[in-house]
Amino acid sequence: MDALYTAAATANGREGRAVSSDGQLDLALALPPALGGDGAGTNPEQLFAAGYAACFASAMANVGRQMGLDTNDVSVTAEVSIGKDDAGFGLAVVMRVELPDALAGETGQRLVEATHQFCPYSKATRGNIDVELVVE
Fold first, then answer.
1. Distances, alpha carbon 112 to alpha carbons 21, 47, 56, 61, 81, in Å
2. What's the whole-model pTM score?
3. Which has the closest alpha carbon to 17: 41, 50, 45?
4. pLDDT, position 81
5. Are 27 and 42 in contact (CB under 8 A)?
């Protein structure tokens, strides 16, 4: 891969801080109440969900242009779950894609599936975690 951009961030655990190298991101981290924390900060699953949703939506705009489709009114929500698996802990994702009526049905389904093949986050997670696509 020929890198076009590299992001760097440093964190010191789930109950600390995460800071990007350029200072644009500087967040308190905390365990969510469901995992025994006080929820007084963001958590890695929220950060991953935000990044994946943004990447998927941008990828959909690119794929939509290639297919001649207007994706301006599309909304993507990534639900990232953490839970125990055989090796300790694992992640699962549900990608909820809200499409306008003009993209309902088979056209929208093809768009979402093509986006899942194109999106860098989808490529990175493929074969590593379960990702369910839900078209709404």
1. 33, 22, 9, 11, 21
2. 0.93
3. 41
4. 96
5. yes
Q: In 92-118, which positions are buried (b, 16+ CB within 10 angstroms) versus exposed (e)?
A: ebebebebeeebeeeebeebbebbbee
- Find the largest Cα–Cα distance for the chain: 47
Amino acid in the structure at residue 125? T
Q: What is the DSSP string of 61-128?
A: HHHHHHHT---TT-EEEEEEEEEEETTEEEEEEEEEEE--GGGTTHHHHHHHHHHHHH-HHHHHHTTT
The CA distance from 47 to 53, in Å, is 10
Rounded Cα distance, 66 and 40, in Å: 42
Measured distance CA(26)–CA(38) in Å, rounded: 19
Q: Are 58 and 113 in contact (CB under 8 A)?
A: no
Q: Return d(Cα 83, Cα 88) in angstroms, integer.
A: 8
**pLDDT tens-digit readout, 50-109:** 999 999 999 999 999 999 999 999 999 999 999 998 889 999 999 999 999 999 999 999
